[in-house]
Structure formats: C-alpha cells, structure tokens
Amino acid sequence: MANYNEISKRLIHTDKELKLKHEGAGLEYIRAAFFEKAAKDCCAMVNYMHSFGLISILRLCLEKPENNNDYHFSWHVLPLDTEVFWKGRKSFNPESNILQYKGESNKDKALFNVVKTAGNNYQYPDKVTDEESVITATIKHETQYKTTQFDFTISETEIKINNSYFKYRENLILTRKE
Length: 178
What we know:
Number of strands: 6
Number of domains: 2
Oligomer: single chain
Low-confidence stretches: none
Strand order of the largest sheet: 1-2-3-4-5-6
Distance between the termini: 29 Å
Number of helices: 6
Structural class: alpha+beta
Largest sheet: 6 strands, antiparallel
C-alpha cells in the first residue's frame, strides 16, 4: 500500500480526537478491533481492506474480462465472521460486453458448523438429518461494460447461504455515474 504512512498518520490523529470526545468500553472495543486488524502495519491494512466485499467485487470488475472455468472467489460473511470460498465459472460475452460469474458450494460441513454455532443453535434440533445439514452457498455476479475492459456501467452481485434453518442473502450493486 503506497500511501500507508499517510493513512496511518490520519488514523492516529482521528483516534486521538475520538479519545478526547468519547470514552467507554464500546470505543475501546472498536479501537482494539480496528487497530489489531488494520492499523498495526501495512500488511494488516491491506488484508483488512481486502476483507471488504466492495474491494472483492471491484477487483472482479477490473480484471481483464475473459472466460475462466476455474475461477476462485472468496467472500467474508460478516455476521458469521467467516470466509466462504467458491470455485466457479467466469464467462465473458464480447458481443454484449457482459461478464458473468457463478459459483456454488454444497455439503460444506465447516460452514454448517460455523452457522450452527454462530448464535443459531437454538434453531436446530438436537439431531439434524443429513438432508437438513446440507448448506448451499451460491454467488451470482454480472458486470456490464461500456467497453471491453475497466469501464463498467453496472455490476450486480448476489450471495446466498442457506439450508433448512438458516437463510442469508447479500446484494451489492455498483453503478457508474456519467
């Protein structure tokens, strides 16, 4: 990150101002969580920025639009504080200038365990059948380009994670003003 030193100085300045205006456990929690994840060094800052869905989508939009049957995509699901990974298909139609990506994951036991322990235990019966434990995670992404690269007009992404007891959906739409 080329401007890390400048960003770090502004963070320290803002932190001092917040400490003068506010106090309490909430502020200390936010400060500790943020500074541990982002502000301790340049590498941590880059990792923190890349954990935001917006950055992942922008990266997908700004890559060279091309076909790829083995494209890997990850998404940080904030309510579960976990990463979901997809191996999907990226396809580009040069006639319509549309890039599409689709990925689906089924029978992910690790994701099921995270869902079950993330405050949803009360929803699950003591014994869960194999069918009830199947969790599906899907991603659909579409970017409309004005030209064939770097100049997109709209990008829509939909993330879904669900099974019999848990439903999660996240939509992100980016548009470009003329």
